[in-house]
């Protein structure tokens, strides 16, 4: 007996879930390579962030490069499905890199105040003198009220 009427069998609301294929060795190697470059740029920025002006531009450039490479790395890790651990590591590193890069950019943007602060700190011999230098820097040379 054939039924020429409409098919009334219940259907699942969504198609069956398909698993994402495992990343190939080449994809894993490519993502790991980008991650190592990202880590190297981040470490370079960390190690050089205490340099004085004008050398403070070096960690700023390293930070900008690290943000770009970090974003590329995160996209590759997500696209290739390389696991939650790598996503977390790259995401946290990217957040730290962005935060530090913004701080370095602020120091470079405030070049005259930063130069004055660095000169003051070099000549400060006492705790009170270093506190005075820091207070002057944090109040933008006396333009903001003291906390």
Q: Could you explain how this protein is built, in words?
A:
The termini are far apart. The protein is mostly helical and 147 residues long. The chain has helices at 25-48, 57-80, 84-109, 111-123, 127-138. The protein is built from 5 helices and no strands. It is 67% helix and 0% strand. Helix 1 packs antiparallel against helix 2 and helix 4 (111-123) packs antiparallel against helix 5.
Counting copies of identical and different chains, the oligomeric state is: single chain
First-to-last CA distance: 89 Å
Please write the string of helix (H) and strand (E) elements: HHHHH
Helix/strand/pairing class, anyone? mainly alpha
Rg computed from alpha carbons, rounded to a whole number of angstroms = 26 Å
**Which regions have little confidence, pLDDT < 50, spanning 5+ residues?**
none
The total count of helices amounts to: 5
| Strand-residue proportion | under 5%
Average predicted confidence as pLDDT: 86
| DSSP E strands, number | 0
Helical residue percent?
55-70%
Q: Biggest β-sheet, characterized?
A: none
What is the global morphology? Answer: elongated
